[in-house]
Design a protein that fits this description.
This protein is of the alpha/beta class and 158 residues long. It has 4 helices and 6 strands, in the order E-H-E-E-E-E-E-H-H-H. It has a single domain (17-152), classed as Collagenase (Catalytic Domain) (3-Layer(aba) Sandwich), CATH 3.40.390. Helix 1 links the parallel strand 1 (21-25) and strand 2.
Length: 158
């Protein structure tokens, strides 16, 4: 069972709802980060179906505040009302630090893994996957590396 390809969502959504994956970048996001994320999301759109529109806001901040008050690098907004669209926010303001610490490839891969992690929460939500909080995080972490590896097979670098 690959939760990114399940169709449990058909119980809740019609074909008339807005769908797809969209990106919205802060103006200050580094051009290399922007390029790598666009390439990754273009690949995601070819490989996976996004039955409910999921905008991903790429922020230029080092960290963002989640709705529960935690300071994080990525967050998924999971609406209680299924008529409200979810969204993802990703912080990329630490790119220069990661670049110096890890190099370009690993720094960009960190953002790809974060996006895949948050998108796994999206697929958990649309497919109504019941897990404990720890189980949700473990599954999202496992899938994020699986998706990253799958993507890496198509690229020399992220």
């Amino acid at each position: 069972m690959h939760i990114w390809t399940l169709d449990n969502w058909t119980k809740y959504y019609s074909v008339n709802c807005r769908r797809g994956l969209r990106l919205k970048f802060d103006k200050e996001v580094d051009v290399e980060v922007r390029r790598a994320i666009k390439e990754f999301c273009k690949w995601l759109r070819r490989e996976y179906y996004f039955p409910v529109r999921i905008p991903i806001y790429i922020k230029s901040h080092r960290r963002i505040k989640a709705l529960d008050g935690d300071i994080v690098v990525g967050t998924f907004f999971e609406p209680f009302d299924r008529n409200v669209e979810p969204y993802i926010r990703i912080a990329t303001g630490d790119y220069e630090d990661l670049l110096k610490k890890w190099g370009k490839s690993k720094a960009l891969t960190a953002y790809i893994i974060t996006i895949a992690h948050e998108l796994t929460h999206y697929f958990q939500w649309i497919n109504d996957i019941s897990l404990t909080d720890i189980g949700r995080e473990r599954q999202a972490t496992n899938y994020s590396y699986y998706i990253k590896d799958e993507y890496s097979e198509t690229r020399d670098h992220p």
